[in-house]
User: Which sequence fits this backbone?
């Protein structure tokens, strides 16, 4: 999915970040090239200290790279001053944090409204949009709650609503499921996938959570600041598991390639291909909401 | 707009209340000190209220309270007969102790010998008691327990209280208005007066009249009523102004420190939240406005509580100490408000610097 040509939302070229100097110099990110397309959900994985968060921080315009360029919606943000970066962060990027990072003295609705206020939307327009966003997240009954009184899953959904407030085309999520139990983690994963599918948005997730692989389009493996492997993922039409295209069993059917997690699944498919194509189509439709 | 500043302040209600109390204390201190100064500085107002535009004294007399002036009454009458003078009122005045209700108090006795054609009803009501009687004010009534009909012993003379006037602005001394004939007996003097109060003809030039009087008698000195009153307040200025300036400065520093520390602490505690605001696109101006609003709210609340507190303290103090004279002027209140605004700006300086230094990348640290 990284061959979206000129339609990409995010493009990083030869991105490098070096901390400190001399003997203590650390190359946290080392010549990373990356492109994220509309409608794509990209997962960045890697061991601790591999540079995932540093990469995410730079992509969000919160940290300046030592070298290389970052384009968001065609704008080279590495060439912008701090004051020029602020509106880019406000309008073009939505952040979702591991620990939600909600403003605790504000109500749930005010958390969203404040983000809208920063972008110039005020009064009833802001409160109406905040309400609508929260209702979409199933939080219509929590509008006046203090954010500190919410459960972890609710907090993360408010955080997602806040990230969507100004309709950015790029969502950056840092370990969005780390503080959640498995049910809420799964909910958030599917929500992020749905968000990438709708409105031609790109979602870039940094996580250790293997479950997220199931819903992402691509996995980028980062190690020592370098991309080691980019795995293109596909959905097994039989069992629904997420599989890496380059190492999975592949079968052609009706002019299309299908990928399988095991010989059993590929055998089952061969027995009744039309049934599993229909099932796969139904799953894709469900994925797209 | 979401009232972030208010929400932040009210999130810690206890600290907010303590901070408001701190600012209120500073405002109260400044206002009370200024009001006391204004109140004390009205000493001498009696000379402004009396109808004489000029006051004739023996040359070398510096002020009516601390300097003796003795003028022969005939000489005063003769030498003040110049063009523009309607009447010259002989005045007897001196500070003295007297006995009232078993206690001994000090006051300033004053007597005017006002010609009948000049003595208006208002003058009689305020300053001219009949023989054997005195007029006092409410402050002296409360100090002595004297009331209308009561008697006080002035030397060998026993004088009755004719009426009690409302509290006068005189702080250092309360005035006892005595009949002129009684005063001569109480003071035990002959045909000598202390001052001459000169009432001018309408349209007369006070400076020209003063020059004409001193031209006729170089042994006399002429003050305008304003200068005569100011000679008293000058002493107040010299004595109290440096003390007042120091107290006002202390109040200002205390207020600024309280607001500054509160806002700085609130900023430090919310470093991560301010970092999130920066990360999601909050401009510097947006964040500064939050800090300034917090400081302004704190200072505003402190100002209102402090101003009301100062007024209440003044009322209580007057009840406890009759001489406690305060005068809250609009100019002073406005001045303290401006100082409070400046205090808020000053107190915001450190928190704003702190916000400037917050790295928005902090949001990605667990």
Assistant:
């Amino acid at each position: 999915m990284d061959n979206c040509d000129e339609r990409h939302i995010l493009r990083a070229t030869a991105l490098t970040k070096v901390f400190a100097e001399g003997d203590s110099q650390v190359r946290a990110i080392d010549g990373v090239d990356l492109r994220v397309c509309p409608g794509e959900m990209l997962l960045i994985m890697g061991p601790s200290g591999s540079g995932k968060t540093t990469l995410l921080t730079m992509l969000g315009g919160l940290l300046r790279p030592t070298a290389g360029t970052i384009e968001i919606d065609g704008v080279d943000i590495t060439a912008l001053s701090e004051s020029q970066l602020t509106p880019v962060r406000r309008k073009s990027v939505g952040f979702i944090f591991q620990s939600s990072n909600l403003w605790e003295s504000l109500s749930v609705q005010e958390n969203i409204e404040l983000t809208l206020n920063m972008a110039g939307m005020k009064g009833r327009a802001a409160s109406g949009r905040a309400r609508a966003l929260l209702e979409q997240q199933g939080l219509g009954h929590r509008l006046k709650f203090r954010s500190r009184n919410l459960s972890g899953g609710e907090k993360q959904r408010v955080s997602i609503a806040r990230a969507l407030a100004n309709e950015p085309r790029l969502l950056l999520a840092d370990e969005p499921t780390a503080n959640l139990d498995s049910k809420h983690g799964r909910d958030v994963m599917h929500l992020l996938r749905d968000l990438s599918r709708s409105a031609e948005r790109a979602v870039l997730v940094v996580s250790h959570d293997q479950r997220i692989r199931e819903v992402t389009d691509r996995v980028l493996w980062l190690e020592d600041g370098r991309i080691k492997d980019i795995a293109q993922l596909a959905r097994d039409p039989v069992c629904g598991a997420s599989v890496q295209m380059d190492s999975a069993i592949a079968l052609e059917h009706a002019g299309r390639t299908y990928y399988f997690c095991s010989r059993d699944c590929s055998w089952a498919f061969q027995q009744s291909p039309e049934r599993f194509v229909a099932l796969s189509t139904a799953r894709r439709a469900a994925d797209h909401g | 707009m979401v009232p972030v500043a208010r929400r932040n302040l009210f999130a810690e209600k206890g600290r907010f209340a303590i901070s408001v109390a701190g600012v209120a204390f500073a405002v109260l201190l400044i206002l009370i000190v200024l009001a006391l100064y204004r109140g004390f500085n009205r000493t001498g107002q009696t000379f402004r209220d009396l109808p004489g535009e000029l006051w004739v004294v023996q040359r070398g007399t510096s002020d009516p309270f601390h300097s003796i002036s003795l003028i022969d009454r005939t000489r005063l009458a003769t030498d003040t007969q110049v063009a523009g003078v309607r009447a010259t009122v002989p005045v007897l005045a001196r500070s003295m102790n007297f006995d009232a209700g078993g206690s001994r108090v000090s006051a300033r006795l004053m007597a005017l010998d006002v010609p009948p054609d000049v003595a208006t009803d208002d003058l009689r009501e305020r300053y001219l008691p009949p023989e054997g009687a005195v007029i006092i004010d409410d402050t002296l009534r409360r100090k002595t327990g004297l009331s209308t009909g009561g008697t006080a012993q002035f030397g060998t003379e026993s004088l009755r209280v004719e009426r009690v006037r409302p509290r006068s602005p005189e702080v250092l001394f309360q005035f006892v208005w005595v009949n002129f004939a009684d005063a001569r007996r109480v003071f035990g003097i002959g045909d000598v007066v202390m001052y001459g109060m000169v009432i001018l003809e309408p349209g007369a030039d006070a400076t020209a009249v003063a020059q004409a009087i001193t031209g006729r008698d170089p042994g006399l000195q002429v003050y305008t009523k304003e200068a005569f009153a100011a000679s008293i307040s000058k002493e107040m200025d010299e004595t109290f102004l440096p003390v007042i300036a120091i107290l006002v400065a202390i109040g200002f520093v205390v207020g600024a420190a309280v607001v500054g520390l509160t806002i700085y602490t609130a900023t430090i505690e919310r470093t991560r939240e301010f970092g999130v605001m920066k990360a999601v696109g909050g401009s510097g101006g947006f964040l500064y406005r939050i800090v300034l609003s917090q400081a302004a709210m704190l200072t505003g609340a402190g100002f209102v509580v402090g101003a009301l507190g100062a007024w209440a303290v003044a009322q209580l103090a007057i009840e406890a100490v009759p001489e406690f004279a305060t005068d809250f002027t609009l100019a002073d209140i406005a001045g303290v408000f401006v100082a409070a605004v400046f205090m808020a700006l000053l107190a915001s300086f450190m928190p704003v610097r702190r916000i400037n230094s917050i790295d928005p990348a902090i949001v990605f640290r667990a």
